[in-house]
Amino acid sequence: MVKSMSLLLSLLFIVFCHSSANTAVYDVVKLGAKPDGRTDSTRSFLSAWGGACASITPAMIYVPKGRFLLKSATFAGNCKNSDITIRIDGTLVAPSDYRVIGNAGNWLLFEGVTGVSIYGGILDGQGSGLWACKAAGNSCPSGATSLGFTRSKNIVINGLTSLNSQMFHVVINGCQNVNIRGVKITASGNSPNTDGIHVQLSTGVTIMNSGIKTGDDCISVGPGTKNLWIEQIACGPGHGISIGSLGKETQEPGVQNVTVKTVVFTGTQNGLRIKAWGRPSTGFVTGVLFQHAVMNNVQNPIVIDQNYCPRNEGCPGQVSGVQISQVTYQDIHGTSATEVAVKFDCSPKHPCRGIRLEDVKLTYQNKPAESSCANAGGTAYGFVEPTSCL
Ligand SMILES: *[C@@H]1O[C@H](CO)[C@@H](O)[C@H](O)[C@H]1NC(C)=O
């Protein structure tokens, strides 16, 4: 009875969501995947992809309820159609031994695909073993990104949950027109390099209505990002939303036209951050709007740091080449966990230009916080506390 009910529901889903009669459906269980969490189902998923990709009509890959063990898999493009829906009702589980995928770079990678939409699903990266290895200071694999899209366009990720990735949870690299909505990302607050969503070399990425709790940046924005829209995000624990690190390479494309609005940061290391290496680079940041942010006990609510130099290697005595301009902070309020809530530490060679602070109120222990500026130019409008040092 239960079985026939769920079959009926699946059929209804297919009928309502893909009324075009010629949608080809590839159910991974029918292709041999086992929902037992133990049997390696990688081949069945790849064969579902192979079918969907070769289909000349729109295709759907269906993953029923249950836990499916998957090793590293690349879902490669040059498909015959540009309308592939992946509907996931179950959980995809990475091997519990982190070494199996730890050096693969990615766990699940889509490469060179067009028109792929993922609805629902839970990805369980089982990263805690690798985090423990790293914490013990042993030599460990660097770890895999749970879900990567590279050189792809017209991508939708809707309603996905990603748990405990080894490294980054989601990476969008070299893509165009990517719509990420309603995702939930969770890893322990002290897990290393478990960034929530990383975007780089990509144009037209939208990230909305998502909750991200992690041990590194909730969202990080790398070189070559254009027309990025981030809205309605809950971030924390984590390191905040970061444009950067930028300027690590001497030749590097810039970041332009980024909107970050309606974000709540809770107990994070940073709020709204721009971060660049203290070394020469062609990189730049221009046209950023940070709007409507709430800070709850955030260590560095507003920060530009152009002196990033981890382990003091390759930058001492040099200054950042990254030119930062036209950055607006509008309606940012809440509490700072440290005295200095606004810090602009810009490059002496390429001072920050066109910083605009408008309606900012950040307190530290119920008193106005402080601000600190180096090589930063701009203007304050409306009520601004801490008093602007621009
Ligand atoms: C900036 O990016 C947004 C999407 O985030 C886009 O709608 C807008 O047209 C872009 N503006 C320019 C000037 O390219």
UniProtKB/TrEMBL annotation:
Instruction: Cite the Gene3D superfamilies for this sequence.
Output: Single-stranded right-handed beta-helix, Pectin lyase-like
**Molecular-function GO terms, alphabetical:** polygalacturonase activity
Classification via InterPro entries = Glyco_hydro_28, PbH1, Pectin_lyas_fold, Pectin_lyase_fold/virulence
What keywords were assigned to this record?
Answer: Cell wall, Cell wall biogenesis/degradation, Glycosidase, Hydrolase, Secreted, Signal
Q: Name one Pfam family in it.
A: Glyco_hydro_28
- The keyword Secreted appears for this protein: yes
Cellular localization per UniProt: Secreted, Cell wall
The signal peptide here is 1-19
BP GO terms, sorted: carbohydrate metabolic process; cell wall organization
Give the similarity note: Belongs to the glycosyl hydrolase 28 family.
Name of the featured protein: Endo-polygalacturonase
